[in-house]
């Protein structure tokens, strides 16, 4: 079983990011979905936890990919900020891109809205924005089963 801390859109709100880390100390890996890579690098400077990041539309000074495919246990996951796929308007494009990469799950950011829905057979998960409501997600993967907990500090 693997437990992921899924975060996005910290937008220099390092204080809220620190609160999330104190609130959720037990995870195996961090997935950061863009717009605040520097915040995440600073927050996990002394951590031994693996971090997988992609850049967002506000991370212009970084030479990190804007999208990746990762495998966690038995699930292939497409991770991207989402701005190249018009995710504020539709999830059809991200669903199509996810399938074309051989994945059944997409982790996205950009909209700042927590989401867990299935479109055209693709499960699309957005943890929301760290910077606005202290939103994040805990993803638990056990073989081919994926459980999502959408959370927020300011609920």
From TrEMBL:
EC class of the enzyme, as a word: hydrolase
Sequence ranges assigned to domain Calcineurin-like phosphoesterase in this UniProt record: 3-142
PANTHER family per the UniProt record, alphabetical: VACUOLAR SORTING PROTEIN VPS29 (PTHR11124)
Originating organism: Eubacterium coprostanoligenes
GO molecular function annotation: hydrolase activity; metal ion binding
Cofactor: a divalent metal cation
Keywords: Metal-binding
Entries under SUPFAM superfamilies matching the protein: Metallo-dependent phosphatases
Superkingdom: Bacteria
Top-level taxonomy: Bacteria, Bacillati, Bacillota, Clostridia, Eubacteriales
Stated name of the protein: Phosphoesterase
InterPro entries (alphabetical): Calcineurin-like_PHP_lpxH, Metallo-depent_PP-like, Phosphodiesterase_MJ0936/Vps29
Family of the protein in this entry: Belongs to the metallophosphoesterase superfamily. YfcE family.
E.C. number: 3.1.4.-
Keyword Repeat attached: no
Pfam family for this entry, one: Metallophos_2
């Amino acid at each position: 079983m693997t437990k992921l801390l899924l975060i996005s859109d910290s937008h220099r709100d390092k204080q809220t990011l620190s609160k999330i880390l104190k609130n959720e100390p037990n995870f195996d890996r961090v997935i950061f979905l863009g717009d605040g890579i520097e915040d995440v690098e600073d927050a996990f400077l002394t951590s031994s936890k693996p971090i997988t990041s992609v850049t967002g539309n506000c991370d212009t000074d970084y030479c990190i990919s804007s999208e990746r495919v990762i495998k966690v246990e038995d699930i292939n996951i497409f991770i991207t900020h989402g701005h190249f796929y018009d995710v504020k308007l539709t999830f059809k494009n991200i669903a199509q891109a996810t399938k074309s990469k051989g994945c059944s799950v997409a982790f996205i950011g950009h909209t700042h809205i927590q989401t867990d829905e299935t479109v055209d057979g693709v499960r699309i998960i957005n943890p929301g924005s760290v910077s606005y409501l202290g939103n994040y997600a805990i993803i638990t993967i056990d073989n081919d089963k994926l459980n999502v907990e959408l959370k927020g500090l300011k609920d």
